[in-house]
Design goal:
The structure is a homodimer of 225-residue chains. Chain A has 225 residues and is α/β, with parallel strands linked by helices. Chain A folds into 2 domains: 118 residues, Rossmann fold (3-Layer(aba) Sandwich), CATH 3.40.50; 90 residues, Arc Repressor Mutant, subunit A (Orthogonal Bundle). The first copy, chain A, is 40% helix and 21% strand. Chain A contains 8 helices and 12 strands. In chain A, the strands form 3 sheets. A 5-stranded parallel sheet of chain A has the order 2-1-3-4-5, with helices on both faces. A 4-stranded antiparallel sheet of chain A has the order 6-7-8-9, with helices on one face. In chain A, strands 10-12-11 form a 3-stranded antiparallel sheet. In chain A, strand 7 and strand 8 form a beta hairpin. In chain A, helix 6 crosses helix 8. Chains A and B meet through helix 1 and helix 5 of A and helix 2 and helix 7 of B.
DNA sequence: CCTCGACGATCAGGATACGCATTCGCGGCT
DNA sequence: AGCCGCGAATGCGTATCCTGATCGTCGAGG
């Protein structure tokens, strides 16, 4: 899952980035409205954390522009504390959730998780496909109830596929969502990790669609839609 | 476990802080309502001790603001004398327990412990995982019934993990809950203490989740959810 | 049915980051 | 003064990651 943080205060921004990365997200950080808007428009994020109190362009404006451009990623808005009007305005402008500064990092993580979950249409914190279960809260994966040890990258890849169950996901899309901005696109890491996941969870979990990418289907309600 | 004390009277505040620290808590002290409210909103506490008789902003107001903001930590309210009305008002405003001044520090400790225990969903004062037992009342730890001597920090770390059994706890989270406000986040103390605990309790008590943190699982009811 | 090209899977190597153990100096407590 | 726990620094071992090369497979066209 790839996140964009638009936050002008460098200290807070860095800290957030670090925290999120420790929680398994790929994070890009932008320090002003213009750059933030550009990045949100050009890259594909799974969620955006947006500070409203930005210099130059206001956060609300940026949010409005994104929505006008048709960007659909969920946006979590940060506002200075107690500014009730900002909250209303933010939600009006298309924010999906709202958090007042100061906030607790754990709460931010929780809300972010909820946001991404909602965006992918899941209601539980457990993602399930066939015999495979992934709990986003505890970061655990089980196969037929047996715990399976996945490495960080394997987990990210599997998690992304599960969030887009049934959809064909291209290699490029995977790279863009698992790694942050600067990463060599001509690399076969994705294939390598797919192989590894298949070794651990069985060969049928991930289906290859030749020339297009990969797909993860739920045999519970499979062919014949 | 990290505690916030909001108490305007400096002598009592300091004394409480010292006492609690001697009992193994990481303690932040705030001397007025505004600052106290800010700290409770921005940091992650496991419990808060709140004096109602504050200058500037009233304790009840602070409590109300926290609850409105969605802060969930348990709050132990201190009131002057036996003012019944204050008690009622406090509980109404979202306090979890109540203690009239003057009080015995021992009683305060006991109630605090109960509060934290309840908040983490445990009903007993004993935390158990596998062969390890930790009694929060006596501060004793046993391995297969044999008493084990842990140092203060080792105890805090183990206790926090036990309170969050089954969840993956990041290094950051551990630092935030074991130490008080100002502490170097880039430090390897957590790893050091994990090592030391493993030496005393066996290598399998604490599981490492590479890249994410640590986790403590209960082998008593593991496989087959 | 066979061949060939393109794409994907797999393997092995080296680089790296991460966690672990150990050491050491500081400071508080006895 | 001596002991002990704490936390910083250091070096080591290894899981994990990425790269590049090779092998396998699918599918189209002859």
């Amino acid at each position: 899952m790839r996140i964009l943080i638009v936050e002008d205060e460098p200290t807070l921004g860095r800290q957030l980035k670090t925290t999120l990365e420790q929680n398994g997200y790929a994070v890009d950080l932008s320090v002003d409205g213009e750059d933030g808007h550009f990045m949100g428009s050009s890259e594909d994020y799974d969620a955006v954390i947006l500070d409203l109190g930005l210099p130059e362009i206001d956060g609300l404006t940026v949010l409005g522009m994104w929505r006008k451009e048709g960007r659909k990623f969920p946006v979590l808005v940060l506002t200075a504390r107690d500014s009730w009007s900002d909250k209303v305005a933010g939600l009006d402008a298309g924010a999906d959730d709202y958090l007042a500064k100061p906030f607790q990092t754990e709460e931010l993580i929780a809300r972010l998780r909820a946001l991404i979950r909602r965006a992918s249409g899941n209601s539980s914190s457990e993602l399930i496909a066939g015999d495979v279960r992934l709990d986003t809260r505890s970061g655990r994966v089980t196969l037929n109830g047996e715990p399976v040890k996945l490495t960080a990258q394997e987990y990210k890849l599997l998690s992304y596929l599960l969030h887009h169950k049934g959809k064909v996901v291209s290699r490029t899309e995977l790279i863009e969502h698992i790694y942050d901005q600067d990463f060599d696109r001509d690399s076969n890491t994705i294939e390598v990790f797919v192989t590894r996941i298949r070794k651990k969870l069985g060969p049928d979990v991930i289906t290859t669609i030749r020339g297009l990418g990969y797909s993860l289907d739920d045999p519970a309600q499979p062919k014949r839609g």
